[in-house]
Amino acid sequence: MPTIPMYNQGQGSAVQLVSGSLSPRADVGAFAAPGQALAQFASSAGDIAFKLGMAERNREDERIITEEAARAFEESSQYVIQDQSTTIEEAGDKFNVFRDDFISKLNDKGYGSRRSGLINNKLASIFSEQLITSQQNANTRGNKLATKALDSEISLSLSKLKGIDPNSDMFDVQTLLLRTNIAKQSKVGIEPTLNIFQIDSQIEAIRNDGFRTGHADLIESASSVEQVETLIEQVSGLSIDPASQDVLRRLGEQKINEIEIAEVNEFVSYIDVSNVGKTAFDTVESIDAQIKAASSGDFGANKDLAEKWDKLSDGQKLSIRDGWAKAKTQAIQNYNFNLQRADREQRNNNEKLYLDNKD
User: N or C: less crowded end of the chain, CB within 10 Å?
Assistant: First the structure.
């Protein structure tokens, strides 16, 4: 039985079209490409603008941060130079006031929170370093002041020692107090300009000078040769250098010479020749008799000279007798001078009297 063809395979009377394109169709991609290109360009331009904007922002960040950091360093450095604080606490308090004032003025510039944060982060390290420098400088100044005060105290103590007898307990007490104070200051980091060896050297010099000066004063105040000789014998037992001992011995010898000269002069002056020839009682013969009596130890009513005469050395007595011999020579000269003067006065008076009577 023949088969009846089915045209629409049971789908109705529609005619099934032949598959495939019956005429040329426009490419969709051709219409989409310009839009996509434009969109891509817009996207690229936006990326470029964004990147340029970010680069510009970063560039300005760096410029402003660098400028503000440089200004912060310059102003804080100048502040540190001018600050004269002498303690770490004082330096810290003053620097914090400076820093807060600087940041307050910085905030008034309106940089914005983000940029201000970047600047403050940079400044934090600068201010921290400058704060440490300021405190170190203050500590150094404080140490210098403390050293200066200690030096003054040491100088005063040394001056006091000069007025104290080196043989006394007070001298040793003052010396101990001075050394104790230096050790105490050293424990807190304060050292004097002079080291302890130099200070000890000065103390010993003062001690030696005290011994030397004190003994020299005793020699100077001595009134007899015996006293001076005793003081000279004591020199070797003094705690002073050999050169100073020699100086004291020479001073003693000079003092003995002065005492002996004074003693000789006292005896020589006992014979007074100033009135010889002026009166009938003051004659060369009377002076000669007085010298002979004194040479044998007879000084009349002057018992003090008689006692001293017995204690004189032969050399002193010889010097005194030489002085008396010169006094006798002077007596003769005085007598002749006064005699001649009296003769002149007598002649003048006689001449005047003659002239008056003649008139």
Answer: N
Which residues make Cβ contacts (< 8 Å) with residue 113, sequence separation at least 6? none
pLDDT digits (tens, 9 = 90+) for 95-152: 999 999 999 999 999 888 898 899 999 999 999 999 999 999 999 999 999 999 999 9
b/e string for 147-166 if b means 16 or more Cβ within 10 A?
A: beebeeebeebbeebeebeb
For the chain, the average pLDDT equals 83
Among 181-195, 306-320, 321-335, top mean pLDDT goes to: 181-195
Whole-angstrom Cα distance, residue 130 to residue 125? 9
Residues 6+ apart with CB under 8 A from 16: 7, 8, 9
pLDDT of residue 266: 84
Tell me whether residue 2 is exposed, middle or buried, using C-beta atoms within 10 angstroms of its C-beta: 0 to 12, 13 to 18, 19 or more.
exposed
HEC secondary structure over 270-316? CCCCCCCCCCCCCCHHHHHHHHHHHHCCCCCCCHHHHHHHHHCCHHH
Residue 322 has φ and ψ, to the nearest 5°, of -65, -40
